[in-house]
Amino acid sequence: MKLYILPLNTIALKLITLLICCSLGSTTLAQNNTNFSKIADSLILINYTTYSELDNAIKRDKYDTLNMRLLEQKSIEQNYVPGQIFANIMLGNQYRNKSLFEKSENLLNKALTLSRDNNLVDYEIVSLNMLGVIYRRQAIVREALDYHQEALRLAESQSNINDAYLKSIAVSHNSMGNIYLLLKEYDLALDQFNKSLEIEKKANNKLGLAINYNNIGIIYEAKDSLDLALKNYKISLDYNNQIDSKTGKVISNNSIGTIYLKQNKPDLALQTIIPTVALAEELQDQFYIAWAYINLGWAQNELNQLQNAKNNLEKGLKAAENYNLQSMEIEAKHQLSKLYEKLGNTNKALQYYKEATILDNEITGENNSQYVNTLRMRYESEKKNNQILELAKDKELLKVSLENGKKTAILILLGLLAIAIAAFAFYRQRRLKSEKKILTLEQDMLRNQMNPHFIFNSLNSIKLYIINNEKENAVYYLNKFSKLIRKILIASTEKEITLKDELETMDLYINIENIRFSNQINYNITVEDAVDIENIKIPSLVLQPFLENALWHGLSAKEGDKFISLKVSKTERNFITISITDNGIGREASNKIKQEKLMKQKSLGIEITKQRLENFSKNYTENYSMIINDLYEGHKATGTCVILKLPIIPVVKLKTA
């Protein structure tokens, strides 16, 4: 091996060059800091108070974290509160863009507290909107909507809505539209984006226009209107190019690449996405990094570059999981499911598909949707109430301005009459709502009988048959599933159905649930000849909770043979007896399993059934009875038997003259 020794003058020259470069870099950095230090001093001296004034004065320096820390420090020293708040908002946004959500949230909460303590409403509105964006990025729907709706309410309630408030209103509408997108409420989302777009058009805010056109494109994409989606994405890209927004370019190009993939143009998609990956890495925004890698992997999978596709999809998934980017995590797992299906690994494909579906269901679940709708209605109600209050104030001023006493008295009387009519209408409306609530309680309880996860799990089981190419089984169970859903929908509109319909529905229900038990459960129905099942009426779906308990608390943990026997008999003139017997592990063992699994949530199925049977029995000459027997052989539990005695002779109601 040869050892090369540089001449001393060469080494010295390199060291001098390095020192000069470092010195120049340090000098430039120090000069920049010195320049901004002077700017910060002048801002504090001028004492800008509004958010828009500070934003315009600082301009591009607001994206420099060192400058913002310097502004915060100087503002604290000089007790300049607007500067402290502005610096915390800007620093919070920088952390958010790097998906460091906890740090971002702390800074923005600090800004929000300072805003409220010092009654700086415009800063408060911006802080609320930025906090909403943090939660939206993480698909935490409720908190995100709370912050944006509070920001919108606060901005719209101002007596003088200036350009700054209009900008905040546009941001709130846009962000709420994105939340509705997460929940797949596309019409509601489009309404919010159009409201934001109108404001941005009047202000000629190209950044806002770019954002809204991209979001409208997402809606068209979700509705499979790919040409319209591509048109809106390209409009968005044009605005982003005009303002040279790197983040905007990443978003638009990712969106355009997705459309090319859905149009079966993977080559075009790859050309669009590859430079986008590098730009996303430069921005260090984990959300867009994850998105870019997922789209890159998707394109490579379509082009059968399977190993590259796997590597890039896993990079995207890792970024999404590390930074709690749930929407990106769902997309990554969907694409990995397709990849592994192509690789022939059906188990892995099914695993990723199930994980993506479960996570998507959590985000767009019924509770979130209900909460969003409730909050939206509450906001609309508050808005109308505020309008009514404003009208009331105008009316009061009008009455005061009247000089004629007689006219004033007439107006007062009219006002009192209007209040009385309004009070009567309000009382009547409340009464009607109360009556409606009583009438619909029975149906609400009935709909709650069926576990929402049952439909989800049933479809997944049928999906497994399709994946395994068991077409006959898939068609067979899909037919049964559709019949069951139809019967449930019909039953949900009726208080009582015939015993025959109930038994048919339960037979379909057990057949569907039995898929998940690999069809190991033997289920039989025995009806005595003396029972007229076509004319006897019982509450609809009343047997389902007992069968569900037998399946999931009795038989799911049992090894070996499993059976459920349903027997209908008529032992007394006024009653029919329905017994449901299983050979499960028994209630005592089932309760122990629940405690070990920390399943503390109480099932309301049996309690609701008891209430329904109480209401049902009021129309009959006898009351119902229910007995649950634990079955034993010696000291060993061998199952459970539920015995229901239901009255069949209705009360004769006398007609009154």
| Helix content estimate | over 70%
Helix and strand content put the structural class at alpha+beta
User: What's the overall geometry?
Assistant: globular
Instruction: Tell me what portion of residues adopts beta-strand conformation.
Output: 5-15%
Quickly name the level 1 CATH class of the domain at 452-647: Alpha Beta
Radius of gyration, taken over Cα atoms and rounded to an integer in Å: 34 Å
The fourth-level CATH homologous superfamily of the domain at 452-647 is Histidine kinase-like ATPase, C-terminal domain
Structure report:
With 657 residues, the chain is an alpha+beta fold. Among the domains are: 402-446; 452-647, Histidine kinase-like ATPase, C-terminal domain (Heat Shock Protein 90), CATH 3.30.565. Helix content is 72%, strand content 8%. The chain is built from 25 helices and seven strands.
Map the helices and strands:
Layout: H1 8-46, H2 51-58, H3 65-77, H4 81-97, H5 101-117, H6 121-137, H7 141-156, H8 163-182, H9 186-203, H10 206-222, H11 226-243, H12 246-262, H13 266-283, H14 286-302, H15 306-322, H16 326-343, H17 346-363, H18 366-401, H19 405-447, H20 452-467, H21 471-491, E1 496-498, H22 499-515, E2 521-527, E3 537-539, H23 544-555, E4 562-572, E5 575-582, H24 586-596, H25 605-617, E6 625-633, E7 636-647
